Amino acid sequence: HNKKVFKEGLLEKRSDGLLQLWKKKHCVLTEDGPHRGGGGGDAGRVKELHFANMKTVDCVERKGKYVYFTAVMAEGKEVDFRCPQDEGWNAEITLQMVQYKNRQAILAVKSTRQKQQLLVAQMPGEATRIF
User: Fold this and answer.
1) Closest CA to 11 of 53, 111, 29, 95
2) Is 0.85 surpassed by the pTM of this model?
3) Which residues pair with 26 in a beta bridge?
4) Residue 73 Cα distances to 41, 47, 52, 57, 66, angstroms
5) How far apart, in whole angstroms, are the C-alpha atoms of residue 7 and residue 117?
6) In whole angstroms, how large is the CA radius of gyration of the chain?
7) Are the C-beta atoms of 49 and 22 separated by less than 8 Å?
8) Average pLDDT score over the chain
């Protein structure tokens, strides 16, 4: 179950609360998407943002030493992040997301082709039988 790790380090996430505080999270970017370990009390929990549920990385802006960006999820939820400019998390997440989507597209095409081949092979009245 070893996933390839593309990037690891601290990423700050804006909390959903009223104060919208920035919380430092330890993040690991794998081929499935960013995973972040909790700080403090929930150290055992790892939150995953799956590329499967991610639509885009949006609103990238540079202010001071930080880059601010938003992960837009399929259900319309937005998660705000920031990281030091030289960390380049936003570029890495975007790159890996595009590659993930490409892999999914290729897999979808392959499975469609396999289904078509099976359908052809299962046509009634055909002499060919599959063992």
Assistant:
1) 29
2) no
3) 10, 37
4) 26, 14, 9, 9, 22
5) 40
6) 20
7) no
8) 83
CA dist., res. 71 & res. 15, Å (int): 14
User: What is the Cα 74 distance to its own chain's centre?
Assistant: 11
Query: Counting every residue, how long is the chain?
Result: 131
- Where in the chain does DSSP place strands (E)? 5-14, 22-30, 33-37, 46-48, 54-63, 66-73, 78-84
Residues of the chain with pLDDT under 50: 38-44
Tokens of 28: 């690991």
What the block records as the tokens of 58 is 């949006």
Q: What is the pLDDT of residues 42-68, one digit of tens each?
A: 444 556 778 888 899 998 999 999 999
Rounded Cα gap, residues 98 and 56, in angstroms: 9
